[in-house]
Amino acid sequence: MTGGTTTDERKGTGRLAAVAQWWRRAFSYNGDERDTLLVIGKSALAAGLAWLTAHDVLDARSPAFAPFSAVLIMQVTVYRSVVQSLRYVGAVVAGVLVQAGLGFLAGPDLLTFVLVALIALTIGRWHVLGAQGPQVATAAFFAFATYTSSSGDSQRLRALGEIVLLVLIGCAIGTAVNVLVSPPLRYRSAEYGIHSLARTLHDLLAEMSPVLAEGVPDQDTTGGWRIRAARTGEMIAQARAGLVASKESLQLNPRRLPRRYRGHPGFQGYESVLGALERTLYQVAAVTRGLDRSRDEDEARRPFLRRYAAFLESAAAVAEVLTTLDETTLLAQAKRLERLTGEAEARRDEVVEETRRLSLPLADPSAPYGILVTEATRLQEEFRYTCQVLLDVAQNADGAPGASRR
């Protein structure tokens, strides 16, 4: 009994610690936690203003449409809020028009409702409406209920028009709040994605190099490397999503206009670096497959692997710089990356020279040498490309009007 109580207490303490850590992150720096709090706070503000307008100012019959709309279109970027507002308004107008047309033609009976449902659900499949497609049927059903509870054509038209008006008010208030109250500017999302991929690359290379320096790794070791390298697909997708969110946060956002943001290096360079990291991870996966397929030890294997381990160690140093990529120190980091890339290139040349000295069979598919040398060359090319991209972006940003001197 005592042991069970202790376990429950530990679980409770762990949950409280996790909650406390979440709040510390939210108040300490920009991130997902702070974004969540901002969206909640702005949604509540927009809902309150929409209710005040619909209920107290307009004295609407169904004032809930306004705050519902305001909350529904509150998104993490201004651009998404505007796009979703347009789609939502279009969906609601389509649903109300379907109900109005059929209602006035056929009357509010069961057959009319079925026809309204069929047409509204069909329109909701239109790809232009995106995620707001189901709102066509929702609006049509609410409009049908409003239509049947009203008497007289003029009152019914007024009630249906009120629905559209309240949705427009809610969307306008929600979008205005998102634009005017701390509009999200997610420059860092692109960097976070690069940090995550670079950390994965660095950790794998840093683990492989000392093992290869000691000789031929066993099957469990190479198999573990191969599995880790193959599990990066989800991380790549998350990094891509972060880059898309970063780009969207600039569109229609008034915060990008102040002078202090004009020197930002932009996302073209980050997108190129992300693509290079993606290709690099695929190449490292090819290296792990080559090592996993051929573990036979021969006279030349150990000296070759020692040279290859030195190359991977230098490659890990390059990846380590990318784990701390920061727009505010981009030029200094790019220059450091250039130096480390040169060192990695020298280590790669030593690998190639070792294959010549030992007369290794690079064309033999049963031996790993050809694959490993080829992937080393490709890795080096990607590092050189990444270095040049960051140098160009950093130098352009450093010389842009309004850019802060780093």
UniProtKB/TrEMBL annotation:
Residue ranges of the TM segments: 88-121, 159-181
Entry keyword Transmembrane helix: yes
Assigned keywords, A-Z: Cell membrane, Membrane, Transmembrane, Transmembrane helix
UniProt keyword Mitochondrion present: no
Highest taxon, organism lineage: Bacteria
Range of residues in the leader sequence: none
Membrane topology field: Multi-pass membrane protein
Coiled-coil spans in chain: none
Subcellular location: Cell membrane
A Pfam family matched in the record: ArAE_1
InterPro entries found in the cross-reference section: ArAE_1 (IPR010343)
Predominant location category: membrane
Protein name: Aromatic acid exporter family protein
Lineage, highest ranks first: Bacteria, Bacillati, Actinomycetota, Actinomycetes, Kitasatosporales
